[in-house]
Write a structure and sequence with these properties.
This protein is an alpha+beta fold. It is built from four helices and three strands. Helix 2 packs parallel to helix 4. The structure holds FE2/S2 (inorganic) cluster. FE2/S2 (inorganic) cluster binds next to helix 2 and helix 4.
Length: 142
């Protein structure tokens, strides 16, 4: 299997079996974000305690890349401090700009599967939708 095929499989797996899809009952910050180019939406919720992300969930409708990215992102940020989550968002943004990033820094290797998206400028907004919501959420008061 080629690396591209493997990445495609990982993306489809997150799309078809999204992790952390749903709502958080209490004490969550909610961030709604949409991709203006297609109208797809994501609603991200974060529950932060003592500066640490205890829980992250999302709901949304959109293409496989946007939903898989949200699934991977919510999985990766659980247990991180807000600063660490922001650093991860910066790393992901650099990856989407085609920069060489040390993918070992990603706590979830699945995120690597999205690196090929950088070659398709029209899809970058799909992959970054959930991460933009995260950046906004981290900066809100908790
Ligand atoms: Fe809308 Fe991908 S086509 S987020």
């Amino acid at each position: 299997m080629s690396l591209d095929d493997l990445y495609r499989r990982v993306i489809m797996d997150h799309y078809q079996r999204p992790r952390n899809r749903g709502r958080i009952e209490d004490n969550a910050v909610t961030i709604d974000m949409n991709n203006p180019t297609c109208g797809d939406r994501i609603s991200l919720q974060l529950r932060v305690e003592d500066g640490k992300i205890e829980e992250a969930k999302f709901l949304g409708e959109g293409c496989s890349i946007s939903q898989a990215s949200a699934s991977m992102m919510t999985e990766a940020i659980k247990g991180l401090s807000l600063e660490e989550a922001l650093r991860l968002a910066d790393l992901f943004s650099a990856m989407m700009q085609g920069e060489e990033v040390d993918t070992e820094q990603f706590p979830l290797e699945d995120i690597e599967a999205l690196q090929g998206v950088a070659k398709f400028p029209a899809r970058i907004k799909c992959a970054t939708l959930a991460w933009k919501a995260l950046e906004k959420g981290v900066k809100q008061p908790h």
